Amino acid sequence: MRWDGPVLNFSGAQPCPCGSGATFAACCRVLLNGERQAATAEELMRSRYTAYALQYGDYLFRTWHPRTRPAEVLPAPMAWTGLIILDVVDGGPEDEMGEVEFEAGYLDGDRPTVLRERSRFARRAGRWFYLNADTLSVD
Ligand SMILES: [Zn+2]
Q: Which domain holds residue 43?
């Protein structure tokens, strides 16, 4: 999907930016507003993509592992255009670690661009946190 730049007042009735096919209200919004915690690393990955797309810097900070997170997280306004999950290793409700490889599309000016990363997640005190990532070349 695509939309025109960051939208802070994103309607719950719109398709969720993470590409799940569900509405924002039925998908990432409950995670972003703290009603529920992500149950899996993939779910956290999707919600963090949505947080970047909608500029929920506070959520990005709260879900970043204390060991690796910066002092503050201020997502730049960027036109994210879609998320594709390519691979998931572990990261289930009973796992301690997980990896998610994905491609995230964005507009560089008006040029469609793809960021490919393999992100690592760790579960700590029953909650999933983003740990770090390797940026991969896009074939
Ligand atoms: Zn979502």
A: 29-138
Token pair listed for 46 = 């999707």
Model pLDDT, residue 5: 40
Query: Is 99 inside any structural domain?
Result: yes
Cα 18 from Cα 49, distance rounded (Å): 6
* pTM of the predicted structure, to 2 decimals: 0.92
Cβ proximity of 15 and 23 under 8 Å = yes
CATH number for position 120: 3.10.450.50
Q: Cα of 94 to ligand 1 centre, how many Å?
A: 22
73: exposed, middle or buried (C-beta count within 10 Å: 0-12, 13-18, 19+)?
A: middle
How far away, in angstroms, is 86 Cα from ligand 1 center?
16
Beta strands in 7-126 (DSSP E): 80-90, 97-108, 111-124
**Tokens 């700590």 — which residue?**
124
Residue-wise pLDDT tens digits, 84-119 = 999 999 999 999 999 999 999 999 999 999 999 999
